[in-house]
């Protein structure tokens, strides 16, 4: 199966998705925050915070798995994208690595469906088009070589990002 028909692009709130795992755009402390991180913790409930405390943080570019608790998703993959500092501090590589490590966790656990938010493009300030290019390139190349996850959903939260993803995959 080709990579393109295993990718969906939707405009939605990621906390509402009934998938094997949703990805959280977390920070290195893994103790919650605002943006999609805050929304995921609010919807999952306090048990998610308790499990995250046991993880002891996560480096930029890496990812960690927890259960989904009260979310409709079974699991949460907490991925830490880079803070945008102008593009000269390996931001592309670190963002690609956050996607790749999330995909590897989905593969190891044989998840069928995996949903990503647009990591780093909110509070972390990564330019949206560049981030979408990195995300699409990384996911496509992973799907070409791997059977799991079977489906990847890019969950956009604003019309502009949704249009960017649609244009880049047209
Ligand atoms: N569903 C889907 N996408 C969402 C949702 C939602 N419910 N809410 C926001 N987004 P951000 P970052 C989009 O700022 O840039 C936190 O405090 C949002 O529109 O959540 O990686 C963490 O703790 C944007 O496109 O994450 C970190 O400290 C995307 O999710 C820091 O922010 C990512 O925006 C991480 O910053």
Write out the strand line-up for the largest beta sheet, numbering strands in chain order. Answer: 1-6-5-2-4-3
The structural class is alpha/beta
Q: Please, what is the average pLDDT? A: 97
The whole-angstrom Rg is: 14 Å
Description:
- The chain has 170 residues and is α/β, with parallel strands linked by helices.
- It has helices at residues 35-44, 46-55, 91-108, 128-145, 159-169, and strands spanning 7-11, 21-26, 63-67, 75-80, 113-116, 151-156.
- The protein has a six-stranded mixed β-sheet, with helices on both faces.
- The longest helix is centred in the middle third of the chain and has 18 residues, at 91-108.
- The chain is globular.
- It binds ligand AR6.
- The site of ligand AR6 has 25 residues, from strand 2 and helix 1.
- Ligand AR6 binds at residues 13-15, 25-27, 33-37, 39, 81, 117-124, 155, 157-158, 161.
Give short descriptive properties of this protein.
170 residues; alpha/beta; six-stranded mixed sheet; 5 helices; 6 strands; 39% helix; binds ligand AR6
Short description:
The protein is an alpha/beta fold.
Which secondary structure elements does this structure contain, and how are they paired or packed?
Elements: E1 7-11, E2 21-26, H1 35-44, H2 46-55, E3 63-67, E4 75-80, H3 91-108, E5 113-116, H4 128-145, E6 151-156, H5 159-169
Parallel strand pairs: 1-6, 2-4, 2-5, 5-6
Antiparallel strand pairs: 3-4
Helix pairs in contact: 3-4, 4-5
Ligand AR6 binds next to strand 2 and helix 1.
């Amino acid at each position: 199966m080709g990579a393109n028909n295993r990718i969906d692009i939707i405009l939605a709130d990621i906390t509402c998705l009934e998938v094997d795992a949703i990805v959280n755009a977390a920070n290195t402390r893994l103790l919650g925050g605002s943006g999609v991180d805050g929304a995921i913790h609010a919807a999952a409930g306090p048990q998610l915070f308790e499990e995250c405390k046991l993880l002891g943080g996560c480096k930029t570019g890496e990812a960690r798995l927890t259960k989904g608790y009260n979310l409709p998703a079974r699991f949460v993959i907490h991925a830490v994208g880079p803070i945008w500092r102008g593009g000269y501090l390996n931001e592309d590589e670190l963002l690609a690595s956050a996607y790749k490590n999330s995909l590897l966790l989905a593969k190891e656990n044989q998840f069928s469906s995996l949903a990503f938010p647009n990591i780093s493009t909110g509070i972390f300030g990564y330019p949206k088009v560049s981030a979408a290019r990195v995300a699409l390139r990384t996911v496509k190349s992973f799907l070409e070589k791997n059977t799991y996850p079977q489906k990847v959903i890019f969950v956009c939260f604003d019309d502009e990002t949704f249009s960017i993803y649609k244009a880049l995959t047209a």
